[in-house]
Amino acid sequence: MKTSIFFTLVFLSGLANAQICNPNIVDNWGNSRYDNNYDGTVVDKQTKLMWKRCAEGLEDIQCSKGSASKVTWRKALRSAKESKFAGYNDWRLPNIKELASLVKRNCHSPSINKRLFPNTPSAFFWSSSPSYLRKHKSLQVRFLSGSEREKKRSFEKSRVRLVRLGQFKP
After folding, report:
1. Distance CA 110, CA 44 (A)
2. Domain of residue 99, residue span
3. Secretion signal: which residues (predicted)?
4. Which H or E run includes 111?
5. Are strands 65-66 and 41-44 parallel, antiparallel or unpaired?
6. Does some domain include residue 97?
7. Residue 8 is inside which H or E element, if any?
């Protein structure tokens, strides 16, 4: 009896972390859309942007070491400017349109390509875009469902994914 309860709990906890996708919505965010450079970066062939595979604070091939940092907007901008990841020095915070381009609209929990962006938290990520109405706020994307919101820049904290202009290999 105890063994069957244990296995049921293990099975259900695995489901709690499972990405849920709707097969009735066309998947425009499949693996073929991206080039994995095998250096911790991925190029989106559609937008021509190079993304850091791991959210800031995570590392290794599966982004499983560390924890995704939650920082203020200013700290996010500073960390992008200071990053020399994979030998590039032009990393930046994506604007809202760029960040939203990663949202896998047919999936949630998280709403991103899990193979190419593993262990992405189903959480809010900063963009560089200011709020349309409130200049002291910036826009964010939540990778739980792909929703957007605005948050105060000064003291609110969220996660960060860096981007740069992509370069295709010949």
Report:
1. 18
2. 20-165
3. 1-18
4. none
5. unpaired
6. yes
7. helix 2-16
Q: What is the pTM of this model?
A: 0.86
Q: What is the CATH number of the domain that holds 134?
A: 3.10.100.10
From the list 9, 10, 16, 25, the residue with the least C-alpha distance to 122 is 16
Tell me: pLDDT of 15 over 90: no
Residue range 83-111, pLDDT digits in tens: 999 999 999 999 999 999 999 999 999 99
Sequence-distant (≥ 6) Cβ neighbours of residue 136 within 8 angstroms: 152, 153, 154
Amino acid at 106: N
Q: How many domains does the chain have?
A: 1
Helix (H) or strand (E) holding 65: strand 65-66
**Closest residue by Cα to residue 99 from 136, 47, 40, 58:** 47
Tell whether the model's pLDDT for residue 118 goes beyond 60: yes
| Number of residues in the chain | 170
pLDDT value, residue 134: 83
